[in-house]
Task: inverse folding
């Protein structure tokens, strides 16, 4: 979909675009909306990101409103009827109290015997909840929920037939058995339609309608109390009959109208089905998954969070259900003689509860506060209210505490369920976990009412004291659970805020919340987290953007011919309704600390993840045979005031053995260039280049990098575990700069027991060259071909090795000396003294003899039992000598000097595949940096073994001063395209003089 010049081509329609250009790597067929929907159902990660761009932000908003109307309206009415039918026994208790028509009088029950009504209800409810939830997917939600409603409606109506307490117990038993699975079934069904961060506000309004049960129950109890004795039927019997009939009727409505899964909704288009499923997080249940997997149940049971959430639910229900059960009785005991009026006093509590839920929904939907703050706040309010009820100050205080305490009780649940489902996995795992928590968490419903034993009447101080203990334990358990899930909650809040902000701009956030707190993820989930989201786009080879519904950009990968979604915001100004990506917190095993948090500075949007396993070797062989060219060299003055050009490394100075080294101590540079010039670490190299090669142009250079970064990227390409690192990417014209970033550019070594001897070995066995004693750290910049990429590499040299057995100067070496001498003769008098460039730039002093590369050496100090593996470091710097001092606790007993330059060819042959992968990685990094809006990016590897994550930048920071760029890069001609890096690199190789290989003529 791009034009021949590499520009961005507009696409007429999304469907036409998909049919013309989009091909799936797994299917190999043209993409249409139905194919996208089917793949989204099956959870193919390479299609999910693409399907998320099918609708604009405004279209998504309208679609989810339709889903709310279709799904949540029916589910809310179901929940309303469920609450009415389960709570009506509390209102029936005081209906027509003191008359022959009272339920306790007719059935001959005492207060404590009536408490068993709740216990009998919850026992089968607890046992059947989880199995019922496991069946809902197999039977389909509409069918199973309809069955539940019809059977519990029948059980509710059968309450009216009870003529003894045994009959009432039997009716309550079957009501609990038949109702089991309704509520967790709704929660599970929502997981197929909504993201966890969207569920809070839906559940809040779900509970608003559910809490109207308090209003309806009070009104119905008040109304039917006036029908006591009509047609020989008591008021409480009329209440159960009416509510049972209404529930049965609505059960048939659910059969026909309740949506099952997005893929089966006839009122959705194929595109809408695909979009709804694709927008869900990776751990969401899928309709196409197996109906039952034992493995997911076992994994759920091994997850400590399942047991913690279950304990939270149990503690909460024990502490609050008894109060809710006795709420009408407590109010009636305030001294109101008119029991019917006492029923109506329950209405303000329900209304207040609805208000609290509504206000909570308004705050919770914007991510202002962490999600656990809300339920913990409610628990604190409940604890205070129970304290007031325990003190029992007066009727007004009791009414106020009851109003507020029970008002916030219902608001606790809608904030807890999204927290719980955020960490469930798979269809079976989600079904089981939700059912398990809701069922065994309901044990409080069986225990709670017994706290209000009649011997504690009328004020129930002991009961409220015990309830306060359970609520306090619930608070402590919630805090501990929050600690265990803190990483996932941080992601959830961050993405919620990002989605709110994106919605204001008419944009959509694509990223998922990653369950960062689970120690051992399933293999499927783990591969989902690390595998790139890709789709095969045929033979396209340039970046492109899509208009219409396909908003986003995709970056072509040369090695695999695949395309990875990028943020369109990084490429073009954003039109209304576009799609952007938001970076998730990198998946981690522990929370960010000061050791790693600095790496996230200036990161903005996630652009790409690159797992090491996804790298493919480049087609061009990597070899050191074409040689290299020294561009410049320099030393830093010790005070950092200037650089000496060309400078020179210290001379190797053998010492009598054994020699005891002091432990390293004092300040040592991690990156002296970054320490001296934090804003432009590469500037000293280019100031030296100006002095030695003023007229050189670098338009044909692909990569400018330091040796340390190449070593880290090579280890990553090889799949070797390494410490976290960060690199910054900057494009200067067509050249990619890869800047090394460290937490600190200079560190203090205190000489502790675990400090090394490497720095002491260098200072003891070397001496500065004449006139360079006030300088430190010799740096060199060389240029060579790395596969198909023309690279400029900066590195530090430890020593100059001038023993008699060193190589004789070859023709190639003479070429290098001639180049350096020619550069020096071209210098003007001013240049040889000081660089009078822009204010604050690096000062240059011409000093030091030219040193040929054949004399350079790397120094390593190692324990006797360990030999240093420094070949990558030597190879990238084309350093021929490795001098190793073997020591025991600082006493050097042997020194060896090896000409490793002779082994370069063998090493690169052995590591050819890894080196080619490195070239592919560098090519990818360059392409990604070219595609971002500011042509800058940040590369992170925060955990050992993690993929590289590439972010765009919040603020653009230049990598070089403008005057340097103007001197060494020509302005790009309009409409001119640069040749492919590989083909260009091969042409440059032909122009390079051979330095390291004497067989190649200069």
Result:
């Amino acid at each position: 979909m791009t034009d021949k010049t590499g520009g961005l081509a507009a696409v007429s329609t999304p469907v036409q675009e998909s049919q013309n250009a989009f091909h799936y790597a797994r299917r190999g067929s043209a993409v249409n909306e139905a194919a996208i929907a089917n793949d989204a159902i099956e959870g193919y990660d390479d299609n999910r990101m693409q399907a998320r761009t099918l609708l604009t932000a405004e279209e998504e908003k309208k679609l989810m409103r339709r889903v709310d109307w279709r799904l949540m309206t029916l589910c809310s009415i179901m929940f309303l009827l469920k609450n009415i039918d389960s709570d009506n026994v509390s209102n029936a208790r005081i209906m027509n109290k003191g008359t022959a028509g009272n339920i306790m009088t007719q059935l001959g029950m005492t207060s404590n015997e009536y408490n068993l009504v709740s216990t009998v209800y919850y026992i089968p409810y607890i046992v059947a909840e989880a199995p019922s939830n496991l069946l809902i997917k197999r039977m389909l939600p509409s069918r199973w929920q309809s069955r539940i409603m019809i059977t519990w409606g029948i059980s509710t109506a059968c309450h009216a037939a009870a003529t003894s307490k045994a009959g009432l117990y039997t009716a309550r038993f079957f009501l609990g058995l038949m109702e089991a699975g309704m509520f967790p079934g709704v929660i599970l069904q929502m997981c197929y339609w909504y993201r966890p961060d969207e569920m809070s506000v839906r559940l809040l309004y779900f509970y608003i309608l559910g809490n109207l049960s308090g209003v309806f129950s009070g009104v119905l109890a008040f109304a039917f109390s006036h029908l006591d004795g009509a047609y020989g039927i008591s008021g409480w019997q009329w209440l159960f009959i009416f509510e049972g009939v209404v529930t049965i009727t609505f059960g048939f409505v659910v059969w026909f109208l309740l949506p099952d899964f997005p893929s089966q909704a006839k009122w959705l288009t194929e595109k809408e089905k695909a979009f709804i499923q694709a927008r869900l997080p990776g751990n969401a249940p899928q309709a196409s998954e197996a109906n039952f997997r034992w493995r997911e149940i076992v994994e759920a049971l091994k997850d400590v969070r399942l047991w913690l959430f279950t304990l939270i639910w149990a503690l909460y229900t024990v502490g609050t259900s008894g109060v809710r059960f006795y709420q009408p009785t407590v109010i009636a005991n305030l001294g109101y003689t008119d029991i019917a009026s006492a029923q109506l006093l329950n209405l303000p509590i329900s209304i207040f509860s609805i208000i609290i839920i509504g206000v909570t929904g308004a705050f919770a939907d914007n991510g202002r506060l962490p999600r656990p703050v809300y339920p913990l706040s409610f628990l604190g309010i409940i604890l205070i209210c129970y304290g007031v009820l325990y003190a029992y100050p007066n009727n007004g205080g009791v009414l106020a505490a009851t109003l507020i305490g029970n008002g916030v009780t219902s608001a606790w649940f809608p904030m807890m369920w999204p927290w719980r489902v955020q960490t469930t996995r798979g269809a079976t795992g989600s079904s089981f976990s939700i059912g398990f928590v809701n069922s065994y968490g309901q044990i409080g419903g069986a225990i709670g009412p017994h706290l209000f034993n009649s011997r504690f009447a009328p004020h129930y101080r002991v009961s409220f004291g015990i309830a306060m203990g359970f609520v306090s334990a619930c608070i402590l358990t919630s805090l501990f659970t929050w600690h265990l899930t803190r990483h996932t909650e941080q992601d959830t809040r961050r993405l919620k805020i990002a989605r709110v902000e994106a919605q204001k701009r008419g944009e959509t956030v694509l990223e998922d919340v990653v369950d960062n707190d689970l120690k051992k993820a399933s293999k499927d989930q783990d591969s989902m987290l690390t595998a790139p989201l890709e789709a095969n786009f045929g033979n396209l080879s340039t970046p492109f953007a899509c208009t219409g519904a396909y908003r986003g950009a995709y970056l072509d990968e040369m090695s695999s011919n695949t395309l990875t979604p990028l943020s369109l915001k990084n490429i073009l100004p954003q039109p209304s309704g576009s799609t952007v990506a938001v970076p998730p917190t990198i998946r981690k095993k522990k929370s960010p600390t000061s050791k790693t948090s600095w790496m996230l500075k200036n990161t903005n949007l996630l652009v790409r993840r690159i797992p090491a396993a996804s790298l493919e070797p480049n087609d061009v062989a990597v070899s050191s045979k074409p040689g290299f060219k020294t561009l410049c060299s320099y030393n830093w003055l010790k005070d950092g005031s200037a650089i000496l050009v060309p400078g020179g490394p210290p001379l190797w100075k053998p010492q009598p053995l054994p020699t005891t080294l002091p432990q390293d101590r004092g300040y040592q540079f991690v990156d002296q260039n970054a320490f001296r010039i934090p804003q432009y670490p590469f500037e000293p190299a280019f100031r030296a280049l100006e002095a030695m090669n003023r007229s050189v142009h670098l338009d044909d250079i692909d990569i400018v990098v330091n040796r340390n970064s190449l070593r880290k990227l090579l280890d990553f390409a090889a799949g070797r575990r390494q410490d976290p690192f960060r690199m910054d990417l900057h494009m200067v014209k067509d050249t990619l700069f890869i800047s090394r970033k460290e937490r600190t550019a200079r560190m203090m070594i205190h000489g502790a027991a675990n400090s090394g001897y490497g720095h002491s070995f260098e200072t003891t066995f070397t001496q500065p060259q004449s006139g360079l004693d006030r300088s430190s750290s010799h740096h060199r910049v060389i240029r060579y071909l790395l596969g198909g990429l023309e690279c400029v590499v900066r590195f530090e040299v430890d020593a100059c090795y001038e023993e008699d057995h060193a190589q004789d100067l070859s023709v190639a070496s003479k070429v290098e000396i001639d180049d350096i001498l020619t550069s020096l003769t071209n210098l003007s008098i001013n240049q040889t003294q000081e660089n009078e460039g822009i204010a604050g730039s690096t000062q240059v002093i011409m000093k030091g003899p030219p040193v040929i590369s054949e004399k350079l050496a790397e120094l390593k100090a190692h324990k006797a039992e360990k030999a240093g593996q420094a070949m990558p470091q030597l190879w990238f710097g084309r350093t021929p000598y490795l001098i190793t001092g073997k020591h025991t606790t600082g006493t050097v007993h042997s020194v060896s000097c090896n000409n490793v330059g002779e082994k370069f060819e063998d090493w690169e042959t052995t590591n050819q595949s890894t080196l080619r992968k490195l070239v592919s990685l560098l090519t990818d990094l360059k392409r990604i940096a070219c595609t971002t809006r500011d042509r800058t990016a940040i590369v992170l590897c925060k955990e050992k073994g993690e993929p590289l994550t590439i972010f765009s930048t919040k603020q653009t920071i230049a990598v070089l001063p403008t005057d340097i760029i103007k001197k060494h890069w020509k302005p790009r001609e309009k409409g001119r395209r640069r040749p492919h890096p590989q083909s260009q690199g091969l042409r440059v190789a032909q122009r390079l003089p051979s330095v390291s290989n004497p067989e190649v003529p200069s």
Remarks:
- The longest helix spans residues 57-94.
